[in-house]
Amino acid sequence: MSKGGDVAAHSALMHALVESVLNFMIRTGMSPRDIQASFQNCLLKLGAQSRKGEVLDQSGVSYGCDTVAGAVLRAWHRFPGYLDSSARPLAIKATGPKPSLFALIRSQDKGVDPKELIQAMKSAGLLKRTKAGSYLPTKESATIDALDPMAVDHIAKTVMRLVETATRNIEKSRTKISLIERYAHIPDLDLSESKEFASFSKEQGQACLDAIEDWLEARQVKRRARTAKSTTDSVNAGVHIFAFLGEPARDPMDATRKRTPKRATPSREARV
Fold this sequence. Notes:
Shape: globular
Low-confidence stretches: 59-63, 226-230, 262-272
Mean pLDDT: 78
Strand content: under 5%
Structural class: mainly alpha
Helix content: 40-55%
Largest sheet: 2 strands, antiparallel
Number of strands: 2
Number of helices: 9
Distance between the termini: 57 Å
Strand order of the largest sheet: 1-2
C-alpha cells in the first residue's frame, strides 16, 4: 500500500474509533453541545500535557460502582456468613450488622455510599427484593443488559483500560510491565455457529476469570495482616474479557432475489 493509502486507512480507522465513542456518548444522553465542549477540553488538556512532555494521568478518575458491584456479588456467593447450608446466597437485609448489604458493601470498599450502590444495583437488575423486605442477588456477576448509569460506568472504563494497556505495551521503557492484550479472530464464522460461539466463549472466559479472581483476591492488601508500623502500596489491577460478533455479511444479490419473482424453469413449465 502506498503512503497515501496508509494515511487514508489510518484516518478512516481513527474516524471509526471517534464515531463509536461519540455514538456511546449520545446514547448516554449527552447533548451535541456537551460532547463538543468535552472534546475541546480534552484537546486543550492533552495539548498542554504534550507541550510539557507529560504523560496522560487518569489516576484521579474514580473506578466507580461497576467494580464494587462485581466485588459485592462475588463476596455474596463466597463468604461463609452470607451462604446457606446449600452454599446459596442468603437473603439479607439492607442495613445493620453483618450479614447485611451495608456490611457487605463496606467490606469491599469503605469509600462507597451503600445507599447509592444498592439503588444502582437495583436499577441494573442485580438485586431483587423478597416479600420479607430482604435482598437476594439475581446474578453471580455484574453483567448488565441496559444502558443505565452502572453500564455507562462499566463501558467507559473498559475502553479507558484497554487503551491504557495497549499504550503501556508500546512504550519504550525498561521499567514498564507489559500486560496481556491479545485477541482470537476469524473473518468468516459460519452464521449458524453464532449462538454456539457465544456460549463457548462465555464458558471459557468465565473459567479464566474465576482463576484470575482467586489469584487477585488472595493478594488484596486489605486482606493481609497489617501492623501500624507497616504500610503497603497498592495498585488497581484486573482483566477484561469480552467477545465480539460482527453483523452478518449480506450478499448484494439477496435484495434483487427478494424483489424478483421466481420464474418457472423449463422443466417446471413442462409439468404445468
